[in-house]
Amino acid sequence: MSTKHQGEQAGDEDRALQELRGQLAGSVIEPQDPLYDEARAVWNGMIDVHPRAVIRAGGVGDIDPVLQTARRTGLPLAVRGGGHNIAGHSTVEGGLVLDLGQLRGVEVDVENRLVTVEPGATLADVDRATTTHGLAVPLGVISATGVAGLTLGGGVGWLTRPNGLSLDDLVSADVITAAGEHLHASEQDNPELFWGLRGGGGNFGVVSSFTFRARQLPAAVLGGNFFYRPSRWKSALGAFDKWTQGLPEAMNPIVSFLVLPPDLDMGEEPWMIIGFAWASENHQPGLELIEQLRAAAPPDEEEVAPTAWPVWQSAMDDLFPRGSRGYWKNLSFSRMDDDAVDVLVGFASEVTWLGTGIDIHHMEGAFGRVPEEATAFPHRSAKFWLNIYGFWNDPAEDDRLSAFARKAYTLMRPFAEDGQYVNFLGAETGQDITEAAREAYGPDKYDRLLALKNRFDPQNLFRLNHNIVPTSA
Ligand SMILES: Cc1cc2nc3c(=O)[nH]c(=O)nc-3n(C[C@H](O)[C@H](O)[C@H](O)COP(=O)(O)OP(=O)(O)OC[C@H]3O[C@@H](n4cnc5c(N)ncnc54)[C@H](O)[C@@H]3O)c2cc1C
Question: Would you say residue 288 lies in a domain?
């Protein structure tokens, strides 16, 4: 009886996929297709799942029929932009993947400083299109990351202090909901949906188009790195914390702890690297600030140079190739006192090549000025955001290196403030989904997101994300 039922179900799915093929500009890739293994792969090599089919959209017109097929068959649906989600939310075992990764168009309206982006565009696609006009949208730091997932969760990078998160410069989005409604969301149209899209991930629908405000970008940013050996970390972190007090917003620092790739000949010990980008046409004030840091915490090695924006934005790409394995944890904090520094330095000295790293993003500036209630992003007042990340190749290292991220997170937890950045979270097993979402967003934002979810996706069609589980599901 049950075998027959499964057989009928499979037959229905086959027929639905066959019909879908006829409705698409793109393609349906099933397990027997030679492209299947390539099509099912996402950035995180630890996510090794086998969807029933990957549907590569050939245009935004393909979104509706895929949603209809998911509703009709009941197959779980994952939506994919750039495929960089660490938790593996852009694929699904036995379900349908709506892969928007071929829709990468970017249009720049120079006069109005608006940039309209298709849902499969990468950061590099946007930077390439805007830089020629001397403009930029604040995005992340690795150029192959997808704009869609990055923006729907947050978007932290080298312009966070002068411009805010990617989602802070989102002006509007076109959304196709679970019921197939086509909605325009902005501060004026469907404002509550617009609020939820900015931080709530893909919980409410498929975004078919993003429009961003672009900002003036200098011809070259003043980019640099100060490198410190472990014996200097405590004093350099203390000096860094002082240096960041009242730091002009055009200066955007990120502190990293990394063992550098062997081809750089920088040894096998971890380095603390204070990276910085001064995003202003006039480099002189930036040079003076850099000199202040140099005097307070002389680096063991350094590099500082005016750098074209797309070059700076892709400078770290080689460290994070697609197929790397990764498990990430994050938290926000503000204290960089002796206690916090002791803990940080303790676990940072355990980062390895090829394996793990730690970034501390200095926030504040434009990011911190956005009122807490303005978007669903969780926590605006913390000074720093800590990301503990992994990028290794050997499956035998999965447990050990994931355990490192968990341990570092647990050690820093006493210093943590509210919220979790969903885009820096790995896959958790055994964690209650609702509790995880509550912890990430905090109870007030969670309740507001839940009300939106109940309204726009009561059956939880869009569940492959940091899921807000609707009340009726
Ligand atoms: C190497 C690397 C570097 C990173 N660097 C940064 C960084 O500098 N700053 C930063 O903030 N983050 C960074 N991230 C994290 C990144 O923001 C997230 O991984 C983000 O989810 C990636 O977006 P994506 O479109 O590539 O992901 P995907 O895996 O394609 O999608 C992510 C999520 O968004 C949903 N989604 C995707 N497209 C749509 C759509 N059109 N409509 C609705 N839902 C959609 C998916 O269903 C999924 O839940 C980095 C990640 C990696 C792996």
Answer: yes
Among the candidates 74, 99, 124, a domain finishes at 99
The pLDDT-based confidence of 425 (bands split at 50, 70, 90) is: very high
Q: Is residue 461 part of a domain?
A: no
pLDDT tens track for 178-218: 999 999 999 999 999 999 999 999 999 999 999 999 999 99
pTM: 0.97
Pairing of strands 53-56, 96-99: parallel
Question: What's the domain range around 147?
Answer: 106-216+437-456
Mutate to test the pocket of ligand 1, among 54, 86, 152 (most ligand atoms within 8 A of CB): 152
Q: In terms of domains, do 259 and 398 share one? A: yes
Query: Which residue owns the Cα nearest ligand 1 atom 15?
Result: 423
Q: How far, in Å, CA of 10 to CA of 18, rounded?
A: 12
Q: Are 103 and 114 in contact (CB under 8 A)?
A: no
Residue 385 has pLDDT above 50, yes or no: yes
Ligand 1: does its nearest atom lie under 6 Å from the Cβ of 361?
Answer: no
Q: Is 305 found in the same domain as 339? A: yes
pLDDT band at 4 (very low <50, low <70, confident <90, very high): low
Beta-carbon contacts of residue 4 (< 8 Å; ≥ 6 apart): none
Ligand 1 and 356: CB distance under 6 A: no
Residue matched to tokens 């003076």: 288
Q: Which of 11-15, 341-345, 403-407 has the lowest mean pLDDT?
A: 11-15
Give me ligand 1 centre to Cα 147, in Å. 7
Could you tell me the distance, in angstroms and rounded to a whole number, from the CA of residue 382 to the centre of ligand 1?
22
First to last CA, the chain: 27
How many beta carbons lie within 10 A of that of residue 350, not counting itself? 14
| Nearest atom within ligand 1 for CA of residue 145 | 26
Q: Is residue 432 domain-resident?
A: no
Number of domains in the chain: 3
* CATH number of domain containing 275: 3.40.462.20
**Which residue's alpha carbon is nearest to atom 51 within ligand 1?**
84
Ligand 1 pocket member 280 (CB < 6 A): no
Specify whether 196 is located in the same domain as 173: yes
Quick one: pLDDT at residue 1? 42
Q: What is the mean pLDDT of residues 241-259?
A: 98
Task: Give kind and range of the element (H or E) at residue 258.
Answer: strand 251-258
Take atom 8 of ligand 1 and give the residue whose Cα is closest. Answer: 140
Write down the pLDDT at residue 343. 98
How close is the Cα of 312 to the center of ligand 1, in Å?
A: 20
Taking alpha carbons only, the member of 205, 206, 209, 173 closest to residue 456 is 205
Residue 139 has pLDDT above 70, yes or no: yes
Tell which one of 84, 453, 460 to mutate to probe ligand 1, the residue whose CB is within 8 A of the most ligand atoms: 84
Domain boundary among 48, 79, 99: 99
- pLDDT, the chain, mean: 96
In a shared domain, residues 89 and 66? yes
Do residues 451 and 327 share a domain?
no
CATH at 447: 3.30.465.10
